[in-house]
Design the sequence.
């Protein structure tokens, strides 16, 4: 009997260790035609930030640590991330998100055969350069910025969309 | 001496698409194909061709007549609802994720990579060529068991050829996601067999990507690529030369220690055998031109091609293209460059009358054009090809100029947006013009598509 209790305790301990790391993997929601509208709907009357990135964008990867910092420092801003890679990159995306402690936020992944169509739906004026960040106020008036942003940039845009 | 039968099969015709009612038809022909004489390491080989079914398209144009003179085309100039028929194939693979095309002595060489099956994670490589401008193609040759490639459109596998010598270089997997060293393979028998050769870089450390290759008039192969030995996102432009058909490489040189990290580089060889490299610089993110007149021993910065002054810290994923106006004007150079400069975003044509030292005022092509390629048939006749964003996806267009790029005729649509066509390439041979691109129509794997264009 004590042996069985020991095994159960051991199992519970293993689960306790394993669960958080599994949770770190996070969920990648499939971004398909209509998903941008869905994003706006789910953030109705709320400001939010959409960060578009890719595993092939080295500048995006360099930006991740600051994104994590900004996320932690600004819990009142909903941060959403969208990877423009395809599903074959899922494992790599999850690794990068986990490494930068960004698995816990809302993460999406391009999941349509026609990625150009998805890009156009998000913004007809966006050519695909990365990173691309959209800041939306509660009315969802938005500003799209291409390129890596500094902490000062983020703070300025946060202030703008919260006003 | 032995004979090898070369099969020309109907792998093209099986995937022909028809979008236009005016397509006359598809027929099988049996033209004479050259015998090859190859002096290699082992022996002299004579390859006699057994020709099987060949697909030949006769296309009755669907485009509207030419309209002169556009600097920044309005939407009307590229609007066209019908497209002509074109050929496409997966080379016998499940899909096509990367390809390159190279012309040597009027022979079109193509290398492409893709998965063998939908669930396959490894990318296999296949090679083919055409000696009649893209009408007929050799049955694809599978490259053996080489390290897989992580190449994708925009960071494609690269190919160069000189006579019977071919060289392919691609990026393979490394320790970190999306990064890895180069792998090189050469052929001495017109692409029938391939062997792994040395990495053009000094070692396999870090990230080595966005490669381009060219063979010069002396048969020397040149490689340029972006290298990030520390894998920290800070790339430099590297170059190496091989004088033994790509088997070994000289010491790699750093041509620029700070460049954009994700845009393709482009070689061009002048009629005087000068080497040119077009690449995206770091600050500003405009396209820079390097030139070497001594077989790659020394390089000099010649100019910025399109001085937009684009300040950007990110990844555009778009390089440029360069083309000489051939022998009737050896100093005339043409280029396509893309910029994301606020208010000026788009694809631009520029020309130079003094071998790249100075450039004309940039002229925008298309409305939302991104990736482009250019061919100069002579001093006056220039052809450009690009993909352009539309609500249903990206489409391929081409346009001609008959006055050296001063004005452009109405752009012609080659694909519909729903086919998600991207990263087109354009080449010219004595047989005509050939446009190639990849596309992924709904519920179909990505394929290589091509179309012969009238000069």
Sequence:
């Amino acid at each position: 009997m004590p042996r069985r209790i020991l095994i159960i305790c051991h199992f519970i301990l293993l689960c306790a260790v394993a669960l958080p790391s599994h949770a770190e993997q996070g969920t990648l929601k499939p971004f398909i035609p209509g998903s941008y509208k869905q994003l706006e709907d789910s953030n109705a009357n709320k400001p939010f930030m959409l960060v578009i990135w890719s595993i092939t964008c080295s500048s995006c990867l360099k930006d991740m640590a600051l994104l994590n910092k900004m996320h932690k420092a600004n819990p009142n801003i909903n941060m959403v991330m969208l990877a423009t890679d395809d599903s074959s990159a899922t494992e790599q995306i999850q690794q990068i998100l986990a490494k930068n402690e960004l698995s816990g936020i809302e993460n999406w992944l391009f999941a349509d055969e026609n990625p150009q169509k998805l890009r156009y739906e998000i913004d007809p004026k966006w050519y695909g350069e990365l990173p691309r960040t959209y800041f939306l106020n509660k009315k969802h008036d938005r500003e799209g910025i291409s390129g890596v942003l500094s902490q000062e940039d983020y703070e300025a845009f946060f202030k703008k969309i919260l006003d | 001496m032995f004979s090898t039968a070369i099969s020309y099969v109907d792998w093209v015709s099986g995937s022909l698409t028809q979008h236009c009612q005016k397509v006359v038809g598809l027929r099988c022909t049996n033209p004479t194909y050259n015998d090859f004489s190859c002096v290699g390491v082992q022996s002299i080989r004579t390859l006699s061709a057994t020709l099987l079914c060949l697909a030949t398209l006769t296309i009755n144009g669907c485009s509207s007549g030419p309209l002169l003179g556009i600097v920044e085309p309005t939407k009307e100039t590229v609007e066209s609802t019908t497209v002509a028929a074109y050929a496409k194939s997966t080379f016998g693979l499940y899909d096509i994720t990367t390809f390159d095309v190279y012309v040597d002595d009027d022979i079109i060489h193509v290398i492409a990579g893709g998965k063998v099956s939908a669930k396959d994670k490894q990318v296999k490589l296949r090679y083919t060529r055409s000696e009649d401008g893209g009408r007929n193609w050799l049955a694809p040759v599978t490259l053996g068991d080489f390290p897989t490639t992580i190449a994708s459109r925009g960071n494609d596998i690269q190919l160069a050829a000189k006579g019977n010598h071919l060289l392919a270089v691609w990026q393979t997997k490394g320790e970190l996601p999306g990064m890895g060293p180069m792998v090189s393979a050469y052929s001495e028998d017109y692409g029938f067999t391939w062997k792994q050769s040395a990495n053009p870089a000094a070692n396999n450390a870090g990230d080595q990507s966005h490669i381009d290759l060219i063979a010069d008039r002396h048969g020397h192969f040149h490689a340029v690529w972006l290298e990030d030995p520390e894998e920290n996102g800070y790339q430099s432009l590297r170059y190496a030369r091989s004088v033994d058909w790509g088997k070994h490489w000289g010491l790699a040189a750093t041509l620029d220690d700070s460049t954009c990290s994700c845009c393709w580089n482009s070689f061009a060889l002048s009629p005087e055998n000068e080497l040119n490299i077009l690449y995206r610089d770091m600050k500003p993110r405009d396209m820079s031109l390097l030139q070497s007149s001594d077989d790659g021993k020394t390089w000099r910065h010649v100019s910025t091609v399109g001085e937009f002054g684009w300040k950007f810290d990110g990844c555009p994923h778009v390089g440029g293209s360069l083309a000489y106006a051939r022998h009737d004007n050896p100093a005339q150079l043409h280029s396509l460059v893309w910029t994301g400069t606020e208010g000026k975003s788009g694809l631009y044509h520029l020309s130079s009358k003094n071998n790249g030292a100075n450039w004309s005022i940039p002229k925008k092509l298309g409305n939302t054009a991104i990736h482009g390629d250019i061919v100069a048939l002579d001093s006056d006749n220039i052809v450009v090809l690009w993909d352009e964003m539309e609500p249903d996806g990206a489409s391929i267009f081409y346009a001609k100029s008959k006055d050296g790029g001063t004005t452009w005729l109405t752009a012609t649509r080659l694909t519909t947006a729903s086919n998600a066509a991207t990263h087109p390439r354009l080449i010219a041979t004595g047989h005509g013009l050939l446009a190639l691109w990849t596309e992924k129509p709904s519920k179909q794997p990505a394929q290589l598509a091509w179309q012969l264009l009238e000069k």
Notes: Strands of chain A lie at 28-31, 48-53, 78-83, 106-110, 132-136, 142-146. Chain A is about 50% helix and 20% strand. The mean pLDDT of chain A is 88.
